[in-house]
Every structure is written in C-alpha cells, then in structure tokens.
Amino acid sequence: MLRNIGAVTAAMGVVGASFGAIAVSAGQPAWVPVIMSLAVFAGGAQFATLDIVLGGGGAVAAVAAGLLLNARLLVYGLTVADVLALRRPARLLGSHLLADQAVAFAGAERDPVRRRAAYFVCGGALFVTWNVGTLLGALAGRAVGDAHALGLDAAEPMVLLALVLPALRETGPRRAALAGAAVALAVVPFLPNGVPVLLALLGLPAALWGVPAAGRNATPVRCAAPARAVPQPQRPPENPGNPGSPQAPHVPHVQISTDPSAGDLS
C-alpha cells in the first residue's frame, strides 16, 4: 500500500509543479497558485479555474466550473463517513484532505483501522507533494518565462482527461461526455471563455438515452424453493397396560421343534 501511495503522490507532485509554472508564466503572481493549492487542494478544479481565468472568463464562470468539478466530493464524503467519524478538528482536517486517490486507497481496505490509516496517509502525502510541487513550479515559472515552450501547458488537459477516462468505460457517461463536448465545441466561436464549459452540462441527459424503463432489465430475484416436509419417525403406540411406556413391537412367535422327525426348516 505504501509503495502505491508513494508512486501516486510523486506523480501528483509533478502535476502540481506544472500548475504553478503555468500560472506564473501566464502572468499570475507566485503567491496565487500557492495559496490556491493550500486552500482548494483540488487538481482538476484548479486547472479548470485557471484555464477560464487565463482565457478571459469571468470569476462567476471560473467558480462555477470549480464547484461543478468538485461536486463529486459530496458522494466521496458519504463513502468515507466512517473514516471521518472523529472529533471536530480531526474531521475538518480529514475533510480538507478529501481526494480521489485517498478515497480509492481507503475503499480498498476492509479493516477499519487500516482504512482510516490509508485515507490519512494518502491524503496527507498528496497534500504535501501537491503544495511543494506547486511552490517549486511557481518559482521555476519565473525562470521559464513561457510554460508553453516546455510543453507544460499540455499537463492541464492531460490531468482533466485522466480524471474523466475511468468513467468513460461505461456507456452512459461516455454518451454524456461526447454530447457535452459537441455542445461546447459548437458554441466556442460565439460565447466568451468559461461559458462553453458550463453549457457542456446540457449533455448530461444523453447518459439516460436508450436506458430501458425501470424494471425492464432488472436482475431477476431468485426465490427459494418451497420447503418440503421432512417425514418424522412415528412413535410406536403406547402400551395399554402402561400408558407411559410405548408398546413393544409385535414379533411373531416361531416354535422350533427339536424333533428330528420334523424335517428341515428350509
């Protein structure tokens, strides 16, 4: 578990560095990405918000996009409710560490102690590497000058794509993603930056297209076979002479003669 957590957190540190470098090279002060990583701590939402702001979008569109991307954390919170069943300070800290990777590692454990340990170890390591990476990227962004020259701008769409790809294995989310992308691409030439991202939500109903009515493809419920009566051994009738004791079974009396003249019994 620790080895896997280390690999994941190291990769996210590199992504955090690209976030800091892109923000600073685009003209943002170095403290902006650093404070944002400390306060928000959500890679996909930070990249989406930065993209809208740098593209000239308004603050409302940027905040709305970040909130929509982080809406999944509501479900995550219910999933790890037992892990965060702590005192208020620890619960607040654990809520801030809520991330896809931490929830995934916690969900892989069945023991409550290991489940909580996996969540806090992964979440804490992610928080440290993400913020250290952002700081290093922000400092390097000043020296780089243009993050596009090194291809660091490619990290942004790749991160967003990596967040979406696992869900595209299912038909419903794949239809919704394709429909949303089509809507966004269609309105890009006519609307300001940030608005096409919000209008992409119009593709969500496509996830329900072709889904049969409730119960049409429901999993059949196997009913248990009716119970069969098991024959019980019958008690022999009671002895009339002694009602409390059962009557001995009747054994026919066979008289064996010792007279040789009686012949063979066979």
UniProtKB/TrEMBL annotation:
GO terms for biological process: L-valine transmembrane transport. Keywords: Cell membrane, Membrane, Transmembrane, Transmembrane helix, Transport. The chain crosses the membrane at residues 47-69, 117-141, 147-168. GO terms for cellular component: plasma membrane. It is a multi-pass membrane protein. InterPro entries: Brnchd-chn_aa_trnsp_permease. Residues 225-266 are annotated as: Disordered. It is found in: Cell membrane. The keyword Protease does not apply. It comes from the Bacteria. Pfam families: AzlC. The keyword Transmembrane helix applies. Belongs to the AzlC family. This is AzlC family ABC transporter permease. It comes from Streptomyces mobaraensis (Streptoverticillium mobaraense).
